[in-house]
Amino acid sequence: MYVGRFIVVAPNRAAYRVSSRSFPNRQVIERDGLLTVAPTPDAPETDNPYISYNCLRTTADDEQAVIGNGTQVDPITEKLDLGYPARDALTESLLALDYEKDDYDTPRIAGVVGDEESYIGTVRRDAVLVHAVEEPTLVATYEKNRPEAVDLEATEPAAMARELYDADFEHAVCAAAVTRTDEGFETGLYNGNGE
Fold first, then answer.
1. Domain residues for 33?
2. E strand or H helix at 36, and its extent?
């Protein structure tokens, strides 16, 4: 089954996978303390605005992490840094950016992992859904575009990224993950080539 891009958010960790039929030449890279989805060096040139974006950021005080499938990650993080409650930062940013204006009306998906609360959300053509998370919860851009409980065995970031990459959904490209620790957050990634 092809579900497109998806995230899994749990109370103390989250992971994201890029799945793509149209633009498989992408990778997750670490830069300036955040994780970014970017074209691989051999990717064909494109003017598609949805190909490259920050998929994982933490707040300036390292109290919350934001994960998602597009540019909404940045304004959600910025609103959290301004003191917005997680639910409000997630909801307002998803509403403001709306679903992607591509041929498929691709939903935007995002999650916030915090010390005391975590949320998962999506904005689709027909709805905005934001839910508090008490167990691992998945939302995808297609087919599974309503938050639903799932298993997430791994707790270490690189292992979580690999677990999502290996999930039984078609067209895996790359994955990123984050875990809350006593010292803040740890991140990991997997690009499908042993790294």
1. 6-190
2. strand 34-39
